[in-house]
Amino acid sequence: MPAIVLLGAQWGDEGKGKVTDLLGERVDYVVRYSGGNNAGHTVITPDGQKYALHLMPSGALSPDAMIVIGNGVVVDPKVLLAEIDGLAERGVDVSRLRISGDAHLIMPHHRALDRVIERYLGSSRIGTTGRGIGPAYGDKVARIGIRLQDLLDPGILRKKLELALREKNQILFKVYNRKAIDLEATVEEYLEYAERLKPYIAETRAMLWDALDRGETVLLEGAQATMLDMDHGTYPFVTSSNPTAGGACVGAGIPPTAINKVIAVSKAYTTRVGAGPFPTELFDANGDHLRKIGAEYGTTTGRERRCGWFDAVVARYACRLNGVTDLVITKLDVLTGLPKVPICVGYEINGVRVDDMPMSQTDFHHAKPVFEELDGWWEDITKARTLDDLPENARRYIARVEELCNTRVSVVGVGPGREENVHLHPLLP
Predict the structure, then answer these.
(1) Is 140 a catalytic residue?
(2) Which residues are recorded as binding IMP (predicted)?
């Protein structure tokens, strides 16, 4: 079988980890292709165990799938090793992990710069996690980045780090009055990481090409989501990589002709973490309800997520941009008990109704949602497994989402557990 892309259709936290876990036993490879440990996937196994994954692909919990961290990911080796150790302690087989030698490393100066720059921006801050993701990608683009393969050559590692610190230490010390990064201590620290990571480093592109040639299934797992894409999201309030479907090709080395299915995950409402425009954001009791019932707190940061009604303009944009073939709607159960459930079907900008994403950042900041209200439902839907099990008003809600996005809804999540889903169409044959 060819490759499948799984991505988020909103601002992240849509439940992609659950969907990856749902598919994990039926795919041969699960590949993480973008982002770093600024992302978080929560997976709950059938026996109720909860796993919070940050760098490891969600397929790590599948017993047989190979798990791959692609070249498009930036890796903090300390975080990755802690995650590997944590999974191993809980009986998860981590020997199946392979990491691209071309993946870039997050270094101490990246974390230091991320934190100090964010503080310096004050009220204009982006809302980063402070984990060095943006600065690491910045060095990658500037061609002064350090890659995992450099850990295997101490001379190259020292030379590249020395070159980088000539500039970074000047900025930290002279501009921000912060302590400079020690070259020798950093080299020693990262060479220790090298000893443990060496067995996992591989030429992952060729590995995936060979798998596709054998007819095996490769699942490409995105972190963050469409509206956080560097090029296509709500810039500058975005991540530093491309979590969209096009980014899967670049971040894993998969040719676009190999991809025949794109699965997008969206909550039945909308959330985002950090700063940036959010047309349907709620500041009332409804927003508090979504946050409380949906347990809307960041997997990685623990920050409260901003909550709002489902935005069909954003979802439709994501479906068109990514060529989505199947839409998965999660957390429908969170809407239970609301007398009315609004859906944003368009925006009003300067008195003019628009139905598509505005071109400019200014217009999007000033967009006022145009809502269509649907009747809610009171029945417990967590035991629903077929469409007929859902209350009529819940079925109407899903049908309207499908119509507005012009994309079929294949799965509806009705609870956090792996089995708590309504399947409308098979995601895999």
Answers:
(1) yes
(2) 13-16, 38-41, 129, 143, 224, 239, 303
Q: What is the DSSP string of 17-72?
A: HHHHHHHHTT-SEEEE-SB-TT--EEEE-TTS-EEEESSS-GGGGSSS-EEEE-TT
- Active-site choice (104, 109, 110, 140): 140
Q: Was 337 annotated as part of a binding site?
A: no
Q: Is 41 a catalytic residue?
A: yes
pLDDT in tens, the chain (429 residues): 689 999 999 999 898 888 887 887 789 999 999 999 877 667 777 677 788 888 998 888 888 899 999 999 999 999 999 999 999 999 889 999 999 999 999 999 999 998 887 776 666 666 667 789 999 999 999 999 999 999 999 999 999 999 999 999 999 998 888 899 999 999 999 999 999 999 999 999 999 999 999 999 999 998 889 999 999 999 999 999 999 999 999 999 999 999 999 999 999 999 998 889 999 999 999 999 999 999 998 766 677 899 999 999 999 999 999 999 999 999 999 999 999 999 999 999 999 999 999 999 999 999 999 999 999 999 999 999 999 999 999 999 999 999 999 999 999 999 988 889 999 999 988
Count how many Cα atoms sit within 13 Å of the Cα of residue 280 in the half-sphere of its side chain: 28
pTM reported for the whole predicted model: 0.92
Contact in structure between 383 and 393 (CB atoms under 8 Å): no
